[in-house]
Amino acid sequence: MRVRGLTKRYGEVRAVRGIDLSIHPGEVYAILGPNGAGKSTTVEILEGYRRRDGGEVSVLGTDPGRPTRRWRSRLGIVLQTASDAAELTVRETVRHFAAYYPDPRDPDEVLAQVGLAGKAGSRVRRLSGGQRRRVDVALGIIGRPEILFLDEPTTGFDPEARRRFWALVRSLAGDGTTIVLTTHYLDEVEALADRVSVIAAGRVVAEGPPGTLGGRAAAMTEITWTEDGAPRTLATGDPTRTVVELAARFGGEIPGLTVTRPTLEDVYLRLIKGVRDE
Ligand SMILES: Nc1ncnc2c1ncn2[C@@H]1O[C@H](COP(=O)(O)OP(=O)(O)OP(=O)(O)O)[C@@H](O)[C@H]1O
């Protein structure tokens, strides 16, 4: 999947201002960014649901601006808003959608994968918000997509459902499905993404694996300890040496020692700070 110089405006709003992305087959790729950054617009253009103003886009070798039915059947999409709940049961709904695809997965297997086997006979309308979201995910994967787009997929999930969902994403990626994930949960990015791009004000401000995003691996580590009854803090790019020196000074145990590396959240907040919507 390749995007070069993508632009999109809505009247006066320049929602996407020249985005480049390369997403490799089988990769879990996360897109992070504040509300209104242009993530959904970008993803909807990739999905063939929104027209772009400029730039080049290729998804599975096709320009999403000229989508074909066959091409659409190779994509799985879980939109941000939950699907309308009809009077159908969960199993009926999933079976109904399976019929649209040339080589669908088994509906009951998919329901088990998303943790809805016990609700297969319930009407979708009667499900809780998080359970309905799982129906959306089931519909996203029923067609055995080569690329799965997940737009804030775990909103409303309880912690156990999120973990289960993460395992599902890993297993889909393990089977070779490319996953494009937009989310506001940084732990989700850390748990799942091979690479992440941070979009702010319609541009990519950083890209890389979560562990090294924005120079995270080399960023300053904060070391705190207690000395003469008072807390001490030191920021260092060489934490091991600092700890060794402190240990030598104290002749062993360092009182109250903590070593804190910057979290993905620290790095993310630094990256988007000061990006102006000019
Ligand atoms: N259909 C539309 N008509 C007019 N403006 C729009 C439309 N869709 C989005 N926008 C504007 O474009 C900008 C980018 O919106 P977009 O939905 O792509 O952001 P986002 O990064 O997905 O945000 P969120 O995290 O809130 O989902 C925002 O300023 C938004 O108000």
From TrEMBL:
The keyword Nucleotide-binding applies. GO terms for molecular function: ATP binding; ATP hydrolysis activity. It is found in: Cell membrane. Its main location: membrane. It is a peripheral membrane protein. This is ABC transporter. It comes from Sphaerisporangium rufum. InterPro entries: AAA+_ATPase, ABC_transporter-like_ATP-bd, ABC_transporter-like_CS, ABC_transporter_ATP-binding, P-loop_NTPase.
